[in-house]
Every structure is written in structure tokens, then in C-alpha cells.
Amino acid sequence: MKTKTRVRFAPSPTGYLHIGGLRTALYDYLFAQKNGGDFVLKIEDTDRKRFVEGAVENLISSLDFLGLERNEGVFQQASIKNDNIQAIESKSYPGVLEVGEFGPYIQSEKLEVYKKYAEQLVADGHAYYCFCEPERLEEMRSEQTALKRPPIYDQYCLNNITPAEINAKLKENCSYTIRLKIPKDETIEFEDAVRGKVKFETNLVDDQVLLKSDGFPTYHLANVIDDHDMQITHVIRGEEWLSSVPKHILLYRFFGWAPPTFAHLPLLLNADKSKLSKRQGDVAVEDYIKKGYLKEAIINFVAFLGWNPGNGETQEIFTLSELVDRFDFAHVHKGGAVFDIKKLDWINAQWIKKIPISDLYQRSLEFLQTKDFYVNAPEEKKSEIYLKKILGIERGRLLRLSAVGEDSHFLFKKEIHYDGELLRWKECEDAETRKSLELSKNVLEKMDDNFFEFDPDSQMENDGLKRIMETFMRVAEDNFTDDAGKVDRGKLLWPLRVALTGEQRSSSPFEVAQILGKVESISRIEMAIKKIN
RNA sequence: GCCGCGUUCGUCUAGUCCGGUCCAGGACGCCAGGUUUUCAUCCUGGAAAUCAUGGGUUCGAAUCCCAUACGCGGUACCA
């Protein structure tokens, strides 16, 4: 019988969800979904020194926001879709829930388990107690480095302390650690899902501490035990873990367990190829969300950092479920990938154009509420339908949600202010400009009111806009064609656009007029005519 | 230092397993031109990689082998 695919994302609560962590979680999700498997979230909080308050909750929220659903492990009430699911509240993190039969999913809650296994290893002769002081270890290491030898524990406590002495020390409550006893002269070889065969000589592997003197396990011990307890079949993690795999393989062997498949992902890099770091830009997923990147775009972009669908595929924009269909380890890259924000911007712009207008509206509101032009706008210019109309013309030029409305601020104002000189098209005389504006005004006055009504949610072509445009184009041809038969549409359209927007650059006058409506458009033109005198 | 992993346009990458169709394809960015005035969008075109370097195998190598260089990761009672 084929065992069910089970993967896990195992972040440490030392801050927020890092973009590299997201990439790992994404690949976990994609791989699990693709194989009809389970995706488990557990928390590795064995390092109390680096623990950050609120980080667990934040990690969960970020994954939820991005839509990377898990079916087991650590949750928050809001992320549990099914009311029938049995959840236990965590003791160490109030409000955090644990769901599933293989818990606890928080390492600090299963300390006795790790200790029991560590002691079992000692009993079986695969690990030993170590009473060395940190100072001695440090001294030993610097001596080794000075002699240009690999810094490795010298096994002092393995060779120089009798069982009776160990018992005595334990009775005295001496501070101790438990170290893994690495066998000599062995080659550990394994098959990595992305890198292929990798081997290590055990003689160069340190007798790793498994249980720290504070009673907490190290990553190596806790990780192996958890993955076994939780029946994890594929361990997907960053490349920084590759060198510790021999320790993990040995642990699996000593416990008599079959190791999972390992897949070590390439690193994410800064522009200068160093490991992606905060110094050179944002690394927290929530920073990107705050800047107005859509979750779809973040996922789309991150998925392509180290993976591609292969086979000459030229599609670049993928939904989460399309990614699930295509994902495989064969196309995961081995080399690190530079995080290029320009490409993210482009993908974001594509997604802003792609999502339904009602969706764009919902997501834009929180950004709009931070803008003065929105806050100070009259109520009728804050209506859902009006905002959707604005978004309809803005989405084509918007890179990030955080800039929403900025290019259309004149649509939020009752009155616009600008220098009348801006109305002049090229070398035109004032009289010509005035004539042009009078003409536009006339055209608008005679225009069918229906042209100005449209449903921003509709997928259908905006017929009114088409008609408004056609009308003005015809008028331009009729009035501004020179003797050579060349039309200078700018003579009509530039003053019109400036009159409506007060801006040097903006959307087309047709779109703006349609949104403003007939009455307001005309009054803005009248305003403009006054400016010329 | 030692161990491990990597290296195709500025960037993300296709192609590498199964050598010829690759004087290396796509995308972002950049440059130029075009469309309905401006900006943006969109469209068309362009510049951009001696496939890290050197050797070997072969009729033929980005693709196979070896060496070197460079980069990165690990080398903790951190994950």
C-alpha cells in the first residue's frame, strides 16, 4: 500500500514569515496538494533566546492570508473552516489551537518525549552524557582551528568518565547535555529530491548535542522525532540544512525508523548574491502585503524563484491551483535565485488587471482610507459604484494597491485647481483654446445621457465609452483637419483632458468624462474657459 | 582551513538526465517605433549569454568526464 504523502512546514517563532519561509511553505503546499497529501504546520520553538512574542500567531495569519491552507497542526480559530474539527487549545500560546492526531505540534510542549528518546539513545550506546563546560568547548575549538583541523568535539566525556561517575554527577544535578555518538569511518549517502546523490564522511561530522542543558532538544533531535511521530514522508527545507542530513539519517537508523525523502531548496539571494537579508530590502511577507502586492502576485512570483514549469512553457501568470497542477521537484533549481522586485511589480500589475473589479474594490478600501484625497472626498464620490468606476480605469496603470487612486485624485474632488496655462496645446493661441473648449462643451451638452451610464462590474464592453470616444474623434476630424488632410486631435483633446483633470498626465478624457458624468464634466469645462481670460 | 552545494543574457529562467533540431529560446528590465491628445497600458522591433574557466571524450558538447576559479551554505548547548 502506498503511504499518504505528508509534508510539514516548521518555522521558528523568531520573527515574521520570511519570504524564504514562504517559498518553503508554498512548495510544501504545492507538493502536498499535487499528491493528495497532508500539509502540517508545526512550531519549532526550542530556542527560547530568539523567541519573539506574537510570532506564532503572526506566522499562522500570514499563511492564512495567502491561502496556503493546512489540514493539520497549529491553527487559529479564524483559520478553522470546519466546526466539527476537534481542536485543543495550546497551553503555551493562548488562542492557538492544535488539530490532529499526531500532536503536540509545538515542540516546547513535548519536552519529555524528546528527553525519553535521548535517554533511549544513551541506553542503546548511540549517545552519551557530556558534562563539558562551554568554556572548555570553546577553547578546544579554537585550538583545533589554530591547527587547521575541523572543529569537532573530542569525546572527552565519552572516553574519560566511568558509568559510576556519570550516575554520581546526574544525582548531584550537574548540568549536562546528551551528545550523538557518530560512528567512525563511514560514508553516509542519500538521494536528495532536488540535488540527487549527496555523500558525507562521518569522520567529519561532530558529535552533535541532542539535548541541551536546559532540557530542550536541539533542532536535530526534535526534528527527527517529530517527523517520525507525524509520519512525514517528505522533508522540504532550505539548503542550509543539507550538511546536517547525515546526523538526521543516523538518528533515523538508531531509532530503527525509515528516513523520509529529503528535498533541499536553493537559497533566495539579494541583488549582490548574498543570502536574502533585511539590510537590502524587505524580507517579511507582511511588508509586501502592506505595500499593496496581491497575495496571488506574491505567490506567483515566489513560486518562480527556484522553480519553473519547464518544457518551454511561456506562461508566467499562474493561479495557486495551476501551480499545484504543474509542480514537481524535477524542475526545482539547484542554484540560488536573486529576488528581483521589478519582476514582482510586473506580476503584481498583471494580477491587478486580472482579478474581478469587485475583488479589487474590496482590497483597495484599506489603502484608500489612508489617502487624504479619499478621506476629504464628498460622500457621493466614495460610493461603491463610483469607486469601482475609478478602479476600472486605474487598474491598467496601477503597480501596487498602495498607490490606488493617486493617479485619479481629481475624480475625488469637487473642484480642481491648476494653472490655466496648462490648457494650452503646443503653440495654440488663447482664442483657439477657448474655441476648442466651447466646442467640447457643446458636444457634451448634446450627448446622449445614456452614454454616461455603465456598470463597472460588467464584463461586457463599455459601449457608452466607445460612443463618447467616437463622438469626440469625429468632432476633432471635422474641426481640426488641416489643408493637407492631417488631423491634429490634440487641439481638441488636450484642453478637454486638462479641463477635466487639471493634470498634465492622466487617463483619457473620455474615461474621465464618463465617470464624472455629463453635468460635472460641463461645469469643469466652464471653469477652464474662465481660466483663459 | 575543512566538508557540502552551486555556476546559461543585468535579473528570473528554457534547454542538461536520453550529445546533433541551440551560431542558445521565453519573460522582467532597458532602448526604439507604433496605436485614440498626455502619462500608463497594449502592440512591433532591438541591444543583451564566447552556456564560469581550462583540458579531455566524440564526426559533433551548454549537454558526458576531469581539473581550476568564483559564489554560497555548514562547520554552535541557533534554527
Descriptive keywords:
533 residues, alpha/beta, Rossmann fold, five-stranded mixed sheet, three-stranded antiparallel sheet, 41% helix, 11% strand, elongated, RNA-binding
Instruction: Sum up the overall morphology in one term.
Output: elongated
What is the number of strand segments?
14
- Amount of beta strand: 5-15%
> Main beta sheet, described?
5 strands, mixed
Quick one: CATH superfamily of the largest domain?
A: HUPs
- Radius of gyration based on Cα positions: 32 Å
Overall pLDDT metric: 93
Question: Strand order, biggest sheet?
Answer: 1-2-3-5-4
**Number of self-contained structural domains:** 4
How many helices? The count is 20
Give an overview in words.
It is elongated, with a radius of gyration of 32 Å. The N and C termini lie far apart (88 Å). The chain has a 5-stranded mixed beta sheet with strand order 1-2-3-5-4. Strands 6-7-10 form a 3-stranded antiparallel beta sheet. A two-stranded antiparallel sheet has the order 8-9. It is of the alpha/beta class and 533 residues long. The relative contact order is 0.08. The protein has helices at 19-34, 55-66, 111-123, 134-146, 156-159, 163-171, 219-229, 245-255, 285-290, 295-303, 320-326, 341-354, 357-368, 372-375, 384-394, 430-446, 463-479, 490-501, 509-516, 518-532, and strands spanning 6-9, 38-41, 72-76, 87-89, 96-99, 127-130, 177-180, 187-192, 196-201, 209-211, 234-238, 261-265, 268-269, 337-338. The structure holds one RNA strand of 79 nucleotides.
Give the arrangement of secondary structure elements.
Elements: E1 6-9, H1 19-34, E2 38-41, H2 55-66, E3 72-76, E4 87-89, E5 96-99, H3 111-123, E6 127-130, H4 134-146, H5 156-159, H6 163-171, E7 177-180, E8 187-192, E9 196-201, E10 209-211, H7 219-229, E11 234-238, H8 245-255, E12 261-265, E13 268-269, H9 285-290, H10 295-303, H11 320-326, E14 337-338, H12 341-354, H13 357-368, H14 372-375, H15 384-394, H16 430-446, H17 463-479, H18 490-501, H19 509-516, H20 518-532
Parallel strand pairs: 1-2, 2-3, 11-12, 13-14
Antiparallel strand pairs: 3-5, 4-5, 6-7, 7-10, 8-9
Helix pairs in contact: 1-11, 7-8, 10-12, 13-15, 16-18, 16-20, 18-19, 18-20, 19-20
This protein binds one RNA strand of 79 nucleotides through helix 4, strand 9, strand 10, strand 14 and helix 12.
